[in-house]
């Protein structure tokens, strides 16, 4: 008999609800986030990087960084939920509801995507350079090549694709969340079977949508650059961030008195292992993409990395090698670290910070060769902090108002998860 086996609490146990101390933060976080977003926009418009780059483009690029950061966490959480059902995993049941709550932010984030969508219609290339009518001439791109390029990179087609992406991802998130919550009330095992049966097709839809959304929203910032690995690169960062967010939120819930007996050292150990694994996976994909492009040495491919090896971007590029890979790789390597919830929590926060720097490194070099000065960096930090405030505040508000349990209390595999032990 496992030492962690214990009697399951009643479904209405108070420890399965969002702690009031966290729920009360919802409105202040949302209001504070909105204020920071406005201030970030104003500072961005006043502190544009110059050098021929308009402040509007700089500000919208910083907004894209903020949006992508939050969206990628929810995206990774959606994949986490899908893959747990696909693999019929039992260990993760006690932390899966946290992922379900985080993934449910996707429909709300779709509203925050509207400024990006509007910017794509600018004939001045406010965000996407391919929207600038004189791009081909100013960059020496042959007319026949540009004609073929804009068949795909056009505002109307970009809008249609983006709507399809957001509708499909929102649909998956809402579907799995609704069925999981319904099971809290009814305990129907058939709901688990239904989610399992649809998880295979759902993963395929997720994979295609994530790949093409990465191409459209991020890779097309450099309209003449292409990499078939870019979608996987974005996925790797997203799923790493998702595991970090799940570990961080779970730790905070336990610190405030929720699910203290349900989530054990064993579950933190597994989350730590996944954090370690996806740090390695992110590094593998990053290096593979760089190596193939470096070895091929094709000008159309190399300019993306060349831009990031110039000026201040060079330091960030090399910094990612040491601080996004080597440092956390060594830090999470030990089993003793992964079995200490406080250390897993600390590493989760650290890696979420590195994830932000990674997204910043993807987006902002396309604005110009400089960081935009102190004002430019401050604007990006304020916009991202504001987006995180709205993101967290909205999630807490929804969870509190709808009395969402933070544990899947009637999942048929809950006893297995409660008794879970690492080998």
Number of strands: 0
Looking at the structure, what is the overall shape? Answer: globular
Mean pLDDT: 93
Put simply, the count of helices is: 18
Protein model, in words:
With 423 residues, this protein is mainly α. The protein has one domain. It is built from 18 helices and no strands. It has helices spanning 20-23, 26-46, 55-86, 93-103, 106-112, 114-119, 135-138, 143-152, 155-186, 189-217, 230-255, 265-296, 299-307, 312-331, 335-338, 341-363, 373-401, 414-418. α14 runs antiparallel to α16. The protein is globular and about 70 Å long. It starts with 19 loop residues before the first helix and ends in a 5-residue tail after the last helix. The model has no long low-confidence stretch (mean pLDDT 93).
Give a concise summary:
The protein is built from 18 helices and no strands. The protein has 423 residues and is mostly helical.
Task: List key phrases describing it.
423 residues, mainly alpha
List the helices and strands and how they pair.
Elements: H1 20-23, H2 26-46, H3 55-86, H4 93-103, H5 106-112, H6 114-119, H7 135-138, H8 143-152, H9 155-186, H10 189-217, H11 230-255, H12 265-296, H13 299-307, H14 312-331, H15 335-338, H16 341-363, H17 373-401, H18 414-418
């Amino acid at each position: 008999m496992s030492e962690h086996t214990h009697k399951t609490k009643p479904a209405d146990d108070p420890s399965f609800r969002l702690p009031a101390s966290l729920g009360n933060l919802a409105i202040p976080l949302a209001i504070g986030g909105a204020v920071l977003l406005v201030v970030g926009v104003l500072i961005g418009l006043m502190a544009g990087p110059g050098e021929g780059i308009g402040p509007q483009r700089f500000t919208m690029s910083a907004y894209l960084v903020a949006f992508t950061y939050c969206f990628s966490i929810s995206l990774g959480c959606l994949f986490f939920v899908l893959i747990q059902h696909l693999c019929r995993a039992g260990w993760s049941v006690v932390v899966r509801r946290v992922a379900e709550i985080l993934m449910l932010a996707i429909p709300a984030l779709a509203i925050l995507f509207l400024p990006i969508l509007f910017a794509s219609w600018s004939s001045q290339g406010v965000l996407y350079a391919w929207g600038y009518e004189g791009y081909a001439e100013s960059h020496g791109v042959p007319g026949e090549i540009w004609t073929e390029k804009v068949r795909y990179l056009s505002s109307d087609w970009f809008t249609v694709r983006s709507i399809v992406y957001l509708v499909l991802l929102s649909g998956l998130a809402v579907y799995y969340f609704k069925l999981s919550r319904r099971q809290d009330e009814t305990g129907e095992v058939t709901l688990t079977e239904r989610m399992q049966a649809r998880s295979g097709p759902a993963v395929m839809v997720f994979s295609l949508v994530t790949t093409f959304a990465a191409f459209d929203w991020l890779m097309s910032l450099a309209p003449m650059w292409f990499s078939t690995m870019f979608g996987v690169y974005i996925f790797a960062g997203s799923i790493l961030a998702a595991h970090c967010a799940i570990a961080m939120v779970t730790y905070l819930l336990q610190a405030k008195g929720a699910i203290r007996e349900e989530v054990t050292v064993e579950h933190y150990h597994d989350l730590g292992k996944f954090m370690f694994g996806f740090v390695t996976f992110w590094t593998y994909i990053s290096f593979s993409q760089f190596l193939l492009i470096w070895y091929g040495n094709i000008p159309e491919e190399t300019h993306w990395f060349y831009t990031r090896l110039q000026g201040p971007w060079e330091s960030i590029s090399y910094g990612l090698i040491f601080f996004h890979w080597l440092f956390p790789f060594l830090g999470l390597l030990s089993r003793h670290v992964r079995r200490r919830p406080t250390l897993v929590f600390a590493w989760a926060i650290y890696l979420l910070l590195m994830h932000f720097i990674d997204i910043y490194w993807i987006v902002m070099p396309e604005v110009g060769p400089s960081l935009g000065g102190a004002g430019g960096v401050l604007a990006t930090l304020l916009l991202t902090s504001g987006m995180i405030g709205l993101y967290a505040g909205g999630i807490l508000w929804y969870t509190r108002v709808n009395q969402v349990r933070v544990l899947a209390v009637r999942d048929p595999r809950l006893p297995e998860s409660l008794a879970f032990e690492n080998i």
